[in-house]
Specification:
alpha+beta, 4 helices
Length: about 90
């Protein structure tokens, strides 16, 4: 699916489905977000599924998190055609 990422707001980009509450924590039938591959990978590189389920289970909470804010500020400037390398968190 091509559209606009709910996190970085880049448009005309391939989207993936992100379960805002991970499926292993009962999120199979809960709200989802449509994210570009880069944002989706970055979320899972920074946070454990437990942390996502407990404190980062909405798009607004994700956008407001300090670690992700820095990434979002950077990724918004990147062209949708650029392949982005994701770095794992040292704190995860």
């Amino acid at each position: 699916m091509i559209g606009t990422c709910e996190l970085c707001d880049r448009n005309e980009i391939e989207l993936t489905i992100h379960h805002l509450t991970p499926r292993e924590f009962g999120g199979s039938h809960l709200p989802i977000a449509y994210l570009c591959k880069s944002c989706h990978k970055q979320i899972h590189a920074l946070y454990s599924n437990r942390e996502l389920a407990i404190r980062l289970n909405t798009v607004l909470l994700l956008k407001d998190d300090e670690a992700l804010k820095k990434y979002l500020k950077w990724i918004k400037k990147q062209p949708v055609t650029r392949a982005v390398r994701i770095r794992k968190s040292k704190m995860k």
